[in-house]
Design goal:
Blueprint (H helix, E strand, L loop, with lengths): L1 H10 L4 E2 L8 E3 H5 L14 E5 L2 E6 L11 H16 L7 E5 H7 L6 H16 L1 E4 L2 E2 L2 E2 L2 E4 L1 E9 L5 E8 L1 H8 L3 E3 L10 H13 L5 E5 H8 L5 H14 L5 E6 L3 E6 H5 L9 H10 L5 H14 L8 H14 L1
Length: 331
């Protein structure tokens, strides 16, 4: 029956097969900015209500609990595959078929029988978690309710009952965000972070710090935007553990007076003085040169290249950056 279901799905033509090797990890801007996913390690059955700068979100869990930030790996995997296909000019669909082994491997998860069981639990939490929001996706603002995924099914099993191939239908909201390319590139080391709060702080840093050399946020605001249920003193202690470990990819964290967290680009920690600045106009031109690319990630790569080549003096950082982009896209 599972094989028949898989053939029936494939025959509709409304199916995207996740078969792109090692795509660049991508996260959607909406869930990077707002606290949709639970940071708890036990089933979180709280109804979360969040409001910030005109955005209102209510997240209602199922009896299995709210989807966790580790469950989000599934959405990142699907988003990465779909964005890679878009950048190659391939057609995409809201329903994707993936191989469970590839998903577990790409996201650094256990590939034992227990790993497959936990993956199934993640699918159930994603489908059961309901969101009501006025978030904008793809330039459209609509107050709506939806699940993080619309549905999922096991298309094929092993003889022992272990899932092999899985079909997932993404929410229309997430699919619109992907079509609008409202995504950001994540570090490949993202999946190695095992502390939920560390992942969440990284997402916010990636969203807000971007190409800037640093970003500041109060601990009070960070607590709200993280979605953590911890008291502020406990939250602050967890932040200090992350600061002391200093293992977050791309960013370095430090405390400043006034209960402020400072986020600094790691390249900028080495040397900020004299670093070339790229204008907004140049970034827009880069978008036209390489449609679908994350221009901020490109700029970060270019700056790293500039450092490796001895920090040469640049008469026009904009021209140098755009020349590098042209050369890179021609490869």
């Amino acid at each position: 029956m599972a094989g028949t279901a898989g053939r029936a799905l494939a025959s509709t033509g409304d199916l995207f097969l996740c078969d792109i090797f090692d795509p660049v990890p991508k996260g959607d801007l909406g869930t990077m900015e707002h606290p949709v996913f639970s940071l708890a390690t036990r089933p979180d059955r709280r109804i979360l209500t969040y409001e910030h700068n005109g955005v209102e979100i209510t997240v209602t869990p199922s009896v299995k609990g709210r989807a966790t930030i580790f469950d989000k790996d599934i959405l990142i995997f699907c988003t990465s595959q779909l964005m890679a296909a878009l950048n190659l000019g391939k057609p995409i669909s809201r329903t994707v078929q993936l191989t469970a082994h590839d998903l577990l491997l790409a996201t650094g998860r256990d590939r034992s029988g227990d790993g497959y069981r936990r993956l199934r639990d993640a699918f159930e939490r994603l489908a059961g978690t309901r969101i009501t929001t006025n978030l904008t996706a793809g330039g459209v603002e609509v107050t709506q309710g939806f699940g993080l995924i619309e549905s999922w099914q096991i298309v094929r099993r092993t003889r022992k009952g272990r899932m092999v191939s899985v079909s997932v239908t993404l929410s229309d909201w997430l699919f619109r965000a992907i079509q609008a390319k409202s995504v950001l590139t994540l570090s490949r080391d993202y999946f190695r972070m095992r502390k939920p709060l560390e992942r969440r702080v990284y997402e916010l840093a990636r969203k807000h710090c971007g190409r800037q050399d640093h970003w500041r946020i109060s601990v009070t605001t960070l607590l709200k935007k993280s979605g953590s249920a911890s008291p502020r003193r406990v939250f602050r202690a967890m932040l200090r553990e992350i600061i002391a470990a200093d293992a977050m990819p791309d960013y370095h964290l430090s405390e400043e007076p006034g209960d402020i967290l400072r986020v600094t680009l790691r390249d900028a920690v080495i040397d900020v003085v004299g670093e070339p600045l790229v204008s907004t106009d140049a970034l827009e031109q880069a978008r036209l040169l390489v449609p679908g690319s994350d221009v901020y990630a490109l700029e970060a790569e270019w700056r790293a290249w500039w450092v490796r080549t001895g920090r040469p003096h640049l008469r026009s950082p904009d021209r140098a950056f755009l020349g590098w982009v042209r050369g890179r896209s021609a490869q």
